[in-house]
Amino acid sequence: xxxxxxxxxxxxxxxxxxxxxxxxxxxxxxxxxxxxxxxxxxxxxxxxxxxxxxxxxxxxxxxxxxxxxxxxxxxxxxxxxxxxxxxxxxxxxxxxxxxxxxxxxxxxxxxxxxxxxxxxxxxxxxxxxxxxxxxxxxxxxxxxxxxxxxxxxxxxxxxxxxxxxxxxxxxxxxxxxxxxxxxxxxxxxxxxxxxxxxxxxxxxxxxxxxxxxxxxxxxxxxxxxxxxxxxxxxxxxxxxxxxxxxxxxxxxxxxxxxxxxxxxxxxxxxxxxxxxxxxxxxxxxxxxxxxxxxxxxxxxxxxxxxxxxxxxxxxxxxxxxxxxxxxxxxxxxxxxxxxxxxxxxxxxxxxxxxxxxxxxxxxxxxxxxxxxxxxxxxxxxxxxxxxxxxxxxxxxxxxxxxxxxxxxxxxxxxxxxxxxxxxxxxxxxxxxxxxxxxxxxxxxxxxxxxxxxxxxxxxxxxxxxxxxxxxxxxxxxxxxxxxxxxxxxxx
Amino acid sequence: xxxxxxxxxxxxxxxxxxxxxxxxxxxxxxxxxxxxxxxxxxxxxxxxxxxxxxxxxxxxxxxxxxxxxxxxxxxxxxxxxxxxxxxxxxxxxxxxxxxxxxxxxxxxxxxxxxxxxxxxxxxxxxxxxx
Amino acid sequence: xxxxxxxxxxxxxxxxxxxxxxxxxxxxxxxxxxxxxxxxxxxxxxxxxxxxxxxxxxxxxxxxxxxxxxxxxxxxxxxxxxxxxxxxxxxxxxxxxxxxxxxxxxxxxxxxxxxxxxxxxxxxxxxxxxxxxxxxxxxxxxxxxxxxxxxxxxxxxxxxxxxxxxxxxxxxxxxxxxxxxxxxxxxxxxxxxxxxxxxxxxxxxxxxxxxxxxxxxxxxxxxxxxxxxxxxxxxxxxxxxxxxxxxxxxxxxxxxxxxxxxxxxxxxxxxxxxxxxxxxxxxxxxxxxxxxxxxxxxxxxxxxxxxxxxxxxxxxxxxxxxxxxxxxxxxxxxxxxxxxxxxxxxxxxxxxxxxxxxxxxxxxxxxxxxxxxxxxxxxxxxxxxxxxxxxxxxxxxxxxxxxxxxxxxxxxxxxxxxxxxxxxxxxxxxxxxxxxxxxxxxxxxxxxxxxxxxxxxxxxxxxxxxxxxxxxxxxxxxxxxxxxxxxxxxxxxxxxxxxxxxxxxxxxxxxxxxxxxxxxxxxxxxxxxxxxxxxxxxxxxxxxxxxxxxxxxxxxxxxxxxxxxxxxxxxxxxxxxxxxxxxxxxxxxxxxxxxxxxxxxxxxxxxxxxxxxxx
Lengths: 491, 130, 615
Known about the structure:
A: two-stranded antiparallel ribbon; globular; C: mainly alpha; two-stranded antiparallel ribbon
């Protein structure tokens, strides 16, 4: 069996169905199968990435219909890099959630894993597809599974968060369809490469209208302001491994879709300004709102929104160094945010008061988790020698090269705001008096291994970023190189 | 609205205008329901109406004057030139299914929300804020 | 591998090792930390040479670490003071909790400082600067039973504002001059005030905040006072000098070229330093807690150093560098004294304890010597520093008014120095402190060694002058030769300090001998409690030591100056900002329909204005 990109999607989908069947026979199947499948995904990545880096791109057609009539899956260095990252982080999150059982009020693990697998399959699909409507379908898959997972716990807030997410998400799908409609009528194709080829011939107003629809729809998925109202609720109410997956996988897919459409499919001027401005507003409003939060997961959710805003700013700047920094930041954010949610949820399990006050002095009971949370917090603020510093630094240098001093000052001021609420939390963890004595849920060995692995990544890449800068440069190149994308697929 | 008037004048067919008009009206009505109605079920209905509207719009776009259904059948292989565009129809099939799933999910969420909050007024379901 | 890298590795691995070994055995932690710093210091002074360089590439950038005379001078302060402070910590921190955390963060801070000083490119400078900042933040919040959140956050926020201003400047140095190397940027005029003036201003902001220059000094009193004293010795002694290091670096172009734009900046900086000195002194006067007094005094002393740096003249820089070393020595010793008192007597609140001279004579001796140095009285080292500053201000930069301000502040420094000494050691003994013992030997040795530095620089200032002159050479000044034991002024007169020192000692010994021998028969030994006041005799349990409102007349006289509360200004700004944020987050109303309306409204806006946004 030749390994091809389609396995990325097929494996988790099959796993979802396999879990449903196997759970009847073997109780623990729901826990083991995802691990096997995600591990297989990592194997695929390791096999395919060298080919991608060598040949520049792999394009795989489905069901024999050649592109552009059929659907094709494209692995460029950029998308390949993201799928590798998603697979690895997904595996770590699975490892972390292996013993995840206690708080499932009424739900069963197998439903949870099925939905999670389908969500990962959908996100991977969004990343590697080369066809607009296929992208729509995968976005919907991600959407539906995400709505269900948000409402997984039977308490009232889960349903509320899920409904809001559903409402906004449906609007997203409607606008996405409208955008696809206009594109289809103007270019007669649904294949991204062919649309990109024919785009110069489309009249300007139609182009811009379609672009606006796409920006709104994919902006909802990528959590841009003012369309990210659903995000804090969804992230905070979902079960903890799901929140981690949201931050690491779903938002990555959303931003990828937005960037792919904006950079490769369309060729409108002024998109870069739009991304910078809206990215900055997203970042500013999100970080400001994070300062006043009393719920840890909600605070982390707002912080996620802020980071996504920074990623959009970086893509908006558009130079090679900026895109490099943006991809680096996406990677860092996925790892660090997953880590924050993972360690944060242990804090929440172990405290009676669900607000931040419940975190007082918790380091005595959970020293390891506290250390990991602190390292992750330092990393996301951008303290050296952790990996978060490098991504922010590259983005700032790229902004400096474009002489955008106010943007730089703005980003740094927002970083100070970020610093305030993260360090406040770290101080609370370490240095307040702790009333409660008993420990209920110490992290199990699998969670420790998963979290240590991700922390190790943060520290090692922080000290020696050269390990991945080569890949990142190629990824950035491939994104900015529209011509070879078109040529490679349509030849 | 420039683009749609272009299409109208190209086809000059009353039925086409009626179909497009209906589709757009459906979308607007659905939007009105989603944005301005307070009852959760009405919002869900609004979403469904919007879905129908956009699907109708899709099919309408694929229509070619005097075209036949895009199905190959024995004896009519040469009709390929006179078929309407099959691609939007495929898209619509997918979209209908997706819309249906989302509606089902929305309705079950509404039931659960009602159980917890004892109200179906969206203005009162805002415990997660700021 | 390169010497410098090895030292950094020793420090960082030592930090990690110490952190983990605490889980194994509490007693080993302190020893492991001390051994680490000893190895690092020994390795450095043994093997590192001037001119050592280490270049490597990290993530598309080429970094460069190196040792020039300027760095070498500061490493004396960093490694020397840290070694002494860690020796002191062994006894001071005994029995406290979370030792692994404390020592780990301490060693990381030292690694950060060392890295800052050896960096020759901006990226390394910034990286080590940040490591130093967050490691010291961890130590500021160590004592959780104080109001750490405010103090720690104040420190971090100000440091971050400074650090990010620095980062902006670094990014733009790269943009305009195309390089990250400090040397190259210097030669291309990156720090000159004539072009892109915001670059040196932002850099000065970053370094100045660390050096507690008014009006950004508000983090210093709280942070210095509430951290464990063994770290504060390093915090105020060495970490603030990193700011001095940076300011000297930024101004070095001005030193050589004396261009017009820099003149205004140097005047502004000089006045800021002067005001810092005055305000720090004034606030030190009214403190009742010995630690806070020392903290404000630190701020004032740093003000002197900044004044010296900003004059841009040979004498001024020499004064600043000399005072930097001396301040590390005597302030480090003073903080250690405060820590010793705190450990032995339980508190440093001067209204609660007094009269410890009998119980802790050696500590008293250290305090006395350090106080004399602080006040600037010969024959101890502080005199030389003060002399150089006055000479620089009056003769070389003609800044008479500032000289008067500094003089005022120096004189007032006498007041709070005496207060510190009197408040803790002189006066009647308190009942509670009857059983206080002298500080342990491992705490006394570092204190005595630092006092020794104060003494020896009083008679042989050349010991500091010569390395400082080499450092100034590295900054671009011409070679100068300084005599080992004498001070000379521009008119050619010299003062031989060793003679003065010997003379004073002879007078002291002779006088002491004469007085004791002469009055041997007619004197009797009297306890501190054998006193009467207005005809009333001392009763058991009373303490007549004058401790409250010590400088009330001065306070009344200087009342207008006290009204200027910088802390309140910053707090008000912070509160206003928080209220502003509170308003903004109401955007996320929690109503799903509202979010949908946002989306549609945004869509409408984009569609209407699409021609302006996307052309």
